[in-house]
Amino acid sequence: MSSKKINCDSRRNFLKNISTGSLLAVSGLSLLSCKDPSEEKTTLLTTDGKLVQVSKSEIEEMEHLHQGAPPEEARKGIPGKKFVMVLDLSRCKNARKCVEACDTHHNLTPDRPYIKVLKMKDNEKSSPYWMPKPCFHCDNPPCVKVCPVGATFKRSDGIVLVDNERCIGCRFCMAACPYSARVFNWKAPPEGKLDLPYSPETSLPSKIGTVAKCDFCPDMIRNGDLPHCVPACPNGVIYFGNELDDTVTNGEETVRLSTLLKEKAGYRYMEDLGTKPRLYYLPPVDRMFPFEETNQESQL
Amino acid sequence: MKKEISNGQVFETSREKDLLSHLISTSQKYKLWIAFLLLIILFGMFAYYRQVKYGLIVTAMRDFTSWGIYISNFVFLVAISLVGSLFSSILKLNNNVWAKPLIRVSEFIAVAAIICASVIIIIDMGRPDRFFYVITHFRIQSPIIWDVIIISTYLVISVLLLYISILPDIALCRDRLTEIPNWKKKFYRIMAINWVNHPKQVAILKKVSKILAVAVLPVAFAIHTVTSWLFATTWRPGWDSTNLGPYFVSGAFMAGAAVIVIAMYFIRNQLKLKSYITESHFNNMGKLLVLLSLVYLYFNINEYLGPAFKMVGVEGEHITELFAGKYSFLYWFVQLGGLVLPIILLLFRKMRNPVPLLIISFFVILGAWVKRFLIVIPSLQHPYLPIQDVEESYLHYIPTWEEWAITLASFASLLLIVTILIKLFPVLPVQEDEKLVINTDINPLIIKNES
Amino acid sequence: MKVNRYLYPALKIFLLMGLIFGNIPLAFGQDAKEDAKIAVSFSEENDIKTITAIAVDKTGEPIEELELYFYVKRTFSLLPVGDPFNSTDENGMLEVVFPNDLPGDDAKGNVTIVVKIKESDLYNDLSLESTKNWGIPISLDPLKEKRSLWASSANAPISLITGVSIMIFGIWYIIFYIFFKLYKISKIRT
Lengths: 300, 451, 190
Hints:
The structure holds 3 protein chains of 3 kinds. Chain A has helices at residues 2-33, 71-74, 97-105, 142-146, 172-176, 218-222, 229-232, 257-263; strands spanning 41-45, 51-55, 83-88, 116-120, 129-133, 152-154, 160-162, 183-184, 211-212, 238-242, 247-249, 254-256, 279-282. By secondary structure, chain A is of the alpha+beta class. In chain A, the strands form 5 sheets. Chain A has a 5-stranded mixed beta sheet. A two-stranded antiparallel ribbon of chain A has the order 1-2. The termini of chain A are far apart. Chain B folds into 2 domains: 1-230 and 406-432, no CATH class; 236-256 and 287-383. Chain B has 15 helices and 2 strands. Chain B has helices at residues 14-24, 28-54, 69-81, 83-93, 103-124, 133-136, 143-176, 182-191, 199-232, 244-270, 279-310, 313-324, 328-346, 354-380, 401-424; strands at residues 3-4, 10-11. Chain C is elongated, with a radius of gyration of 38 Å. In chain C, the strands form 2 sheets. In chain C, strands 3, 4, 5, 7 and 8 form a 5-stranded antiparallel beta sheet that branches. Chain C has 2 domains: 32-132, Sandwich (Immunoglobulin-like), CATH 2.60.40.10; 153-187. In chain C, 29% of the residues lie in helices and 27% in strands. The A-B interface holds A 111-112, 116, 118-120, 133, 142, 145-150, 166-172, 174-176, 178-180, 182-188, 208-211, 270, 273, 298-300 and B 54-57, 59, 61-64, 66-67, 124-128, 130-131, 133-134, 137-139, 141-145, 148, 230-231, 233-236, 380, 383-391, 394.
């Protein structure tokens, strides 16, 4: 009698254990499906051709995602394109994310930003507004005209680049630019983390005694990506596109360039200087944000 | 009459003795002077070594004031170099006989100044190791390339002008000087290119001299006008002016005349040439200086009246800063002390005596150097777009010791080159084919060459 | 007591079943939406270009009130065409006017038109691309650099090149002439 009871008990226990076990197993399985990323490994190909397994948490986003064309190639523009940028001043809040993105990807120190965000006030009675100012890549570029050695050049796709393997550091282009768009490497620029061959399209590595400026990131453009500042802006201020297909985008909205400029009265800064900038501004009307003076990022 | 001097050198005339003795003997003063200049140059070279090692960050130039006293000094030196054409061309073609003896000094200074200007522009470059790119990769559209072409051309022409004017005297040195080292004898012999005062040679030299006197004038005007275009082709307040070419050229002649006065005074005193460079020369230089300063004053008024009347935007800010702001002391010192006051003072005969004229010329030269500073730097501090969010060092331009050292070294180099040229070649024409007419209120000394 | 003895195992079993069966819809959730098919046709009449899309579900029935998005492929992104929100009518049909002045991608005026179903509750995402030469032709040839002040050195304005060359040649001819004359002087012997 007792053995029967024991058998019944053990069967019951067995069933109990199985059900608990499977419960635990299923819940365990479902927990496991959200895996710990640090444990996950991925296979990468190193620059010297070896395959390595690296855990995902150790992977850092690279300073530069693409390689640009070498100096000779970089003088030719991308065929069929004429790049243009539109900046919507009614949306700019001085968030300076564009400056951050540009500084990071071009390995810049804070004293030499390619894109500057300026507080502008057109006259005494109008209200101040923030105006981001990269290089305008003018169609009648004063800087290219005066360069004695052709270190800065205008491409067929509208982009003006600097070849810092040819620049002699005379700084005439800096004197000639009416928009103060260029910066100079007065001392040795910081060493980059990556060992890329030089390309004027990435402006990396930068060299002492040469001039540098916003380059519209041709290395990104060649791969169909927007320049770094465009998606970095949280307010969609910067639109970039191809004038020849009449379209600009800020990463989220895509609009026709001609419509945008007509409807919002796009203008070019100091149009009457005759430099023909390839960058348009949309006037700061119907502002998205009220103007605020204080901003932590604006202090160096 | 044969003249002898202590170490056995024999001269045929007293004129020869006066003008050639310093070529043979080296005084203690001379050695100290050379040592002093070399010291300054060495100090400047150390400063340049620091600049090459650390980059242009050792200067006070930053992204907005991207050109500093190297460029203003370059403009100043190019201005000084125009004095060669003033004497070799303008005064000569105008038959200003009194100025003939001063041609050689002016060419010494012109050659030295243009060499120093070329060196200082290389020093200003961020990548001097790539200097030859201006030849291999030049862009004919760039005003800098025009400047390179015209400066090299002017250097060659000035050297030719100098050589043409001293060729007969080199032959004289070759023939007359015996107590000199052998290398110097060989040097004179080669440089004299078989000059023997043959009538055919004299005829060729005369013709060549006339051609050069005419040819140098457009080149001289061009060199400083092209330098002014380095500024006039940009959109900067104070630079964006159609008046800049004549303004620069007239300022150059004025500054050059003042340099000649200073050179005249020291050469006269140190080489004991009081009877050759007479008070009448100073008198005439004083009058010339007044004339050139009046022309420069005219262009100055034109340069500032228009913008000051309109006060347009950043141009207005720039004018305010010059007239009443940060640079007002320097500006009025230059315009009044370096331009207006000299004109008024030099109208008086007493002021055209050697010592007062020397002092006035010093002020004119100092004013000229500071004026070039005021042309280059304040304009860069007023770009169209506001200067915001920059480090303190970007807002001011006060040259660092390295920049001063290099600038002083450029002056010392100029003086060194002139000194060496004076030591090698007679500073005044020894052989002449024309009478030198001098005012009778000073000891006259008329020598005719017997050849 | 009897209740307790059966309660806990029952609970465990129900929990287990719930876990297993609860995950099934998540695992197979996609398949709850249906596939839709879109037929795209183009017509051009009186200079008005129209894109017509007819949406049918997998049974062949036209889909009503389905939002379709029309785009043209551009350099960096897709440019929306037509009104912001377009829905099919009761026949599953939707007509959108294509602009006449849109630049094309190449010399033939080809454009890539994309029709999409996006974020629909009932149907899966779908994207259809077709090429049509409804754009304005543009030239893709790399433009030859024109002569200008900002061009490379080889393409300087002719007037500048000639002017500077004449001046340099003129003055250096004189300089070389003078060197020649000096040489002549050195050759004269008495």
